[in-house]
Structures are given as C-alpha cells and as structure tokens.
Amino acid sequence: MFLENNELASLDPDQISSQLAKKVQKLYDELNISEAELMEFLQNSDNFTSDEWESLQKAQKKLQESVDSTVPVRQNPNETKKKYNQNSQVQLGWLHIR
Questions:
Q1: I want to staple 96 with a disulfide (CB 3.0 to 4.6 A). Which of 2, 62, 71, 90 is the partner?
Q2: Can you give the pTM of this predicted structure?
Q3: Helices (H), 1-98
Q4: Structural domain of residue 13, as residue ranges?
C-alpha cells in the first residue's frame, strides 16, 4: 500500500497528495516510463484480455464513484469573489437572496 493508515491520520490532504505524487513518480522512474505512456497503454483495450479489460473498467468506475462521494469540492476563492462582484447591483442595506 502507498501510505499506511496510521500515516494518513497524521497528514492533511495536501500532504497526502504530495506523498502520493512522490510515490507515483518513483514508480514511473522504476518502470522507466512516463505518465503519458502508461495512460496510453491502459486506455488501449488491445493490451488486455476481454476479462481483464472488463475488470479494469469496473475498477475504474468504482474508484471514480468512491472519489466523487468522498472528496469535498473545494471552492475557488476567485470564483466566489467574481460571483459577489456580479451581485453588486443589490442596493446597500439589502440582502441579496437568490
């Protein structure tokens, strides 16, 4: 496993991401391939048997669903500021309610 559970408990999300990126880069270096080469290989169904390809597709779908349900959406401060500026036509003393 990339990171042990006890390591995860002591790290914030940015540290986890950084650690994971380092370990993935180390793997690329050990395999002597680039990320693009690996992605190209993984996206070509001709490189796998039909059972392997089906298993990979199911695993990818499951992983994506897991990530979508557990990773909080971070708000972009620039987008928030832009939205507030767009709503600046509201008169002073009034609260803008959508």
A1: 90
A2: 0.49
A3: 5-9, 13-31, 35-43, 50-70, 77-86
A4: 5-86
